[in-house]
Amino acid sequence: MKMLRKVAMVRERRGLWGVSGLTWVALTMAAPAWGASVVGTNAFKWGNDAKLSALQSQDSGVVKGASVVYTGSAPHVVVSVSPAEFPTPSFEVDNVDNPTLYLPAGSDVHFTFINSVREFSHSMQITRQGPPYGMELKIQPVLAGTSLSPVPTGAQFAYAKFSWQPASGTYYYLCVIPGHAAMGMYGKIIAR
Questions:
Q1: Over residues 40-50, mean pLDDT
Q2: What is the CATH number of the domain that holds 85?
Q3: Which of 48, 60, 68, 121 suits a disulfide with 148, CB 3.0-4.6 Å?
Q4: Banded pLDDT at 117 (limits 50, 70, 90)
């Protein structure tokens, strides 16, 4: 099956990768496999601090060291990216950076992806393709996730929700912005 391609534009923040000023970078991402749940940029919503707390409280996982374990038929995973992660971006789940997520295979997993980094887009995509990751990613297939988030401004953050039903196996979640996964912005998912 041919994979469709689309190009999204993202802003590169001053000083990142030694580039000065705002630079537009073309990011080529694989379109999702048929039936995949990938939400587009237009599906993101805006929130403030009160909404952020409400969203984060929906996470149903239990932290066990560097992992977060989920149970039940409809677990809720809240994944965020915060300004505190600069200059080395990472995901955060229940105050754990890039944790391994343990999900029940066959469950209907509900994800909320939050980007509160002003002036920069991020994404969260799930795939079977594991590390190492290069500067530019060609992830195929994308099983679920988000396209690029809008760039948060002011006191707001951007968030999107999506669902996924994992079969048993090992998966990875990552950001497809060039260089982010190469710098460590990824984590493992084990569905059992």
A1: 90
A2: 2.60.40.420
A3: 121
A4: confident
Distance separating alpha carbons of residues 164 and 124, to the nearest angstrom: 13
Total count of domains within the chain: 1
140-160 pLDDT, tens digit per residue, is 889 999 998 988 877 789 999
Average pLDDT over residues 69-76: 98
| Cα separation values, 100 from 20, 67, 68, 173, Å | 35, 5, 6, 10
In a domain, 146, yes or no: yes
With respect to residue 65, please indicate whether it lies within any of the assigned structural domains.
yes
- 44-74 in b/e form (b: 16+ CB < 10 A) is beebeeeebeebbeebbbeeeeebbbbeeee
| 42 φ/ψ angles, rounded to the nearest 5 degrees | -70, -10
Domain span at 158: 35-191
pTM of the complete model: 0.82
